[in-house]
């Protein structure tokens, strides 16, 4: 049983002023595997003061000095990949392939920030003016549990590259990962106060960051409800806000698609990260004339998606992160049944043979409409909804008839047509016949899926303010 009793402020591991101990669980066994001592608003204030004190010197560092620091961070985080992998499997339950990706992603995003910083244009001549991009100030970075180490490293490396200092409020449910990240970053030997990490509850430490006048910017990944709340709270101190929120992403299967060959893409898009992915393709739009054929292929293919022990290499879908999340997913399965949709595969309860662990049966609903709650609300579990459409225009209309707009996928044999359709979908990203990822490209959402973008030069720009200089 691991006890995590320190937070990280001003270059040191310190005992929090907060005295609450929070249980950490292994979602595969439902056992308590550790405890983390949570910071409180007093700790958040200390961390903000440290970041503020470090800001003048860090914001004036040269590109080379920042690059050197980021390279040390990269090296230190990369060296802990195996430890991160173990923590991710233990406290989050990610299956092996996904876990490995999540364990290597933190170092990869730092490498991306290095690449962006190497060529970033901080100054530009515009007519008679010199436009200088300057760091916005202290950044408050708030992360969720579904890829905690990756989000910390992504947000922090972009903020530091831009010349900001940071206070991080990681997910309180991911403290094992956070501890490894803190140890690695401490080893990287950055100047004191440049980054500070406070474990704590969202409505205590997160709230203090959102409220505090010395925090100039918030970058948040999490639910749309908390994101909206942060915009409202941040407005009082005119905070800049970047939000990466939820999704209800459409997978648009065109009528010329070869179902057997696209089905792995459809199901992997839907079940990625055990369904706990903001970009998961959870609404599958299928031509009505070929619905029966699609259902048959999907029913057969889903048998390959085993839900169970994340350490078993055959497992594709791990447990839900918490009892609360398991209940939420079960509740949505009941809602789908009550709304009159048909369960094509899966359904309520644990997969056969599993007595413990927050495991869910990979589930597909069919005979659903886009008005049902299972088509409109983010479930955040391995539950997909098939919706029939009449023609291409209807498919595009259904794809766009959602409050979200984070990700979408278009599948079909005629690539030109796929692209024409993709251009009409209101979404931050549209994938055509692929699940590829381009880390240099902007990532973020339309509508309720967020505000602003992360990754690449767009991500870094979100930590900078343009200043116009004119001289006689
Ligand atoms: P959440 O919004 O409940 O929590 C996210 C973080 O915000 C946590 O660290 C939490 O402690 C903190 N928080 C909670 N209340 C707060 C408050 N009042 N003030 C400040 N901080 C507060 O979300 P979650 O349950 O941790 O994660 C799941 C959600 O995150 C899903 O809706 C998912 O779609 C979304 N998500 C989005 C992306 C993306 O990139 N768009 C990525 C991952 C997750």
From TrEMBL:
Enzyme active site:
244
Q: Which UniProt keywords are listed? A: Oxidoreductase
Q: Which GO terms describe its molecular function?
A: aldehyde dehydrogenase (NAD+) activity
Please state which protein family the record places this protein in: Belongs to the aldehyde dehydrogenase family.
Q: This protein's superkingdom?
A: Bacteria
Q: Which organism is it from?
A: Paraburkholderia dinghuensis
The family database entries (PANTHER family) matched by this protein are listed as:
ALDEHYDE DEHYDROGENASE, ALDEHYDE DEHYDROGENASE-RELATED
Q: What is this protein called?
A: aldehyde dehydrogenase (NAD(+))
Q: What is its EC number?
A: 1.2.1.3
- What's its catalytic activity? an aldehyde + NAD(+) + H2O = a carboxylate + NADH + 2 H(+)
Task: List, for all copies, the residue spans of the domain called Aldehyde dehydrogenase.
Answer: 14-468
InterPro entries on file: Ald_DH/histidinol_DH, Ald_DH_C, Ald_DH_CS_CYS, Ald_DH_CS_GLU, Ald_DH_N, Aldehyde_DH_dom
């Amino acid at each position: 049983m691991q006890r995590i009793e320190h937070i990280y402020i001003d270059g040191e591991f310190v005992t929090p002023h907060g005295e609450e101990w929070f249980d950490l669980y292994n979602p595969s066994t439902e056992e308590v595997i550790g405890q983390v001592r949570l910071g409180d608003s007093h700790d958040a204030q200390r961390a903000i003061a440290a970041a503020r004190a470090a800001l003048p010197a860090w914001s004036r560092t040269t590109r080379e000095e920042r690059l050197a620091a980021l390279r040390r961070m990269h090296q230190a985080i990369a060296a802990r990949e195996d430890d991160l992998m173990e923590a991710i499997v233990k406290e989050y339950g990610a299956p092996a392939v996904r876990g490995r990706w999540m364990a290597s992603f933190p170092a990869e995003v730092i490498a991306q920030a290095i690449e962006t910083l190497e060529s970033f244009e901080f100054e530009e001549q515009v007519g008679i003016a010199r436009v200088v991009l300057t760091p916005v100030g202290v950044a408050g970075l708030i992360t969720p549990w579904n890829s905690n180490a990756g989000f910390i490293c992504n947000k922090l490396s972009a903020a530091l590259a831009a010349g900001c200092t940071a206070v991080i409020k990681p997910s309180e449910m991911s403290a094992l990962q956070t501890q490894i990240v803190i140890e690695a970053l401490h080893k990287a030997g950055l100047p004191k106060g440049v980054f500070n990490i406070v474990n704590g509850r969202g409505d205590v430490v997160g709230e203090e960051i959102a409220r505090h006048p010395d925090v100039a910017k918030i970058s948040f990944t999490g639910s749309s409800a908390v994101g909206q709340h942060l915009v409202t709270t941040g407005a009082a101190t005119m905070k800049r806000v970047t939000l990466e929120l939820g999704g209800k992403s459409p997978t648009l299967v065109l009528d010329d698609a070869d179902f057997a060959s696209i089905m792995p893409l459809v199901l992997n898009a839907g079940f990625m990260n055990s369904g706990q992915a903001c970009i998961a393709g959870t609404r599958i739009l299928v031509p009505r004339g070929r619905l029966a054929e699609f259902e048959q292929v999907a029913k057969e293919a889903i048998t390959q998606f085993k839900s169970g022990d994340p350490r078993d290499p055959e497992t594709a879908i791990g447990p839900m992160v918490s009892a609360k999340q398991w209940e939420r997913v079960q509740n949505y399965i009941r809602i789908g049944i009550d709304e009159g949709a048909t369960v094509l595969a899966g359904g309520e309860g644990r997969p056969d043979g599993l007595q413990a662990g927050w495991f869910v049966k990979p589930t597909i609903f069919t005979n659903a409409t886009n008005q049902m709650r299972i088509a409109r609300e983010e479930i955040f579990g391995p539950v997909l909804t098939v919706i029939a459409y009449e023609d291409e225009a209807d498919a595009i209309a259904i794809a766009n008839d959602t409050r979200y707009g984070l990700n979408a996928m278009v599948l079909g044999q005629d690539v030109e047509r796929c692209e024409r359709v993709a251009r009409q979908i209101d979404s931050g990203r549209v994938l055509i016949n692929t699940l590829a990822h381009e880390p240099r490209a902007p990532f973020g959402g339309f509508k309720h899926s967020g505000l602003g973008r992360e990754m690449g030069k767009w991500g870094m720009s979100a930590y900078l303010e343009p200043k116009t200089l004119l001289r006689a």
